[in-house]
Amino acid sequence: MTQDELKKAVGWAALKYVQPGTVVGVGTGSTAAHFIDALATVKHQIEGAVSSSEASTLKLKALGIPVFDLNEIDDLAIYVDGADEINPQMQMIKGGGAALTREKIVAAVADKFICIADASKEVDVLGRFPLPVEVIPMARAYVARELVKLGGLPEYRQHVVTDNGNIILDVHNLRILDPSALEKTINALPGVVTVGLFATRGADIALIGTPDGVKTIEK
Ligand SMILES: O=C[C@H](O)[C@H](O)[C@H](O)COP(=O)(O)O
Fold this sequence. Notes:
Keywords: Isomerase. The protein is of the alpha/beta class. It has helices spanning about 5-15, 30-40, 55-60, 100-110, 140-150, 180-185, and strands spanning about 25, 50, 75-80, 85, 90-95, 110-120, 130-135, 155, 165-170, 190-195, 195-200, 205-210, 215-219. The structure holds ribose-5-phosphate (R5P). The site of ribose-5-phosphate has 18 residues, from helix 2 and helix 4.
């Protein structure tokens, strides 16, 4: 099976967590795109979606799924999204597609975070994938210097502006042994909007695509 077939398998497997009559939290990226395709097949049974990016909003609307402003929603049962890495504690690195901040906001509102990922995303220790950090543009150099002090090698993601008008620093050379502590430390730097570590609030359920089928891990 190709990596995309594994992504498709988990995207469609997540459909079983969608309850009729609800608003569904929808993530961003190539795996989440498969989930949106699956969601479109039950669009008349759900109320709609809240989205974590302009790209997902466009796809949802193109498939006829109503998209709500998160501020209109009090209750979100599930948030379904991919990840760049996931560890055995269900903590993740996200933001390879630059959508980390809105993803973290929608995930915070949801009761359950359902992570959909192909098996290549499973790691024992987070950090092989460069850690994305969304930064307000005027703070770029300052935050980069602070990230070097933390042992990282930050790289400015050229030609990328987030949906919120900010820039991304991708931090290489990290071996993240305490993800919750690093999440708090980086989030506390002035100028940082969000770090792409989803540690304090990790996933509740992970659907992992393997050549032998979809593996379900629950907290
Ligand atoms: O900003 C992007 C998101 O965090 C994605 O969920 C993550 O990068 C995984 O993307 P993909 O499903 O395309 O591998």
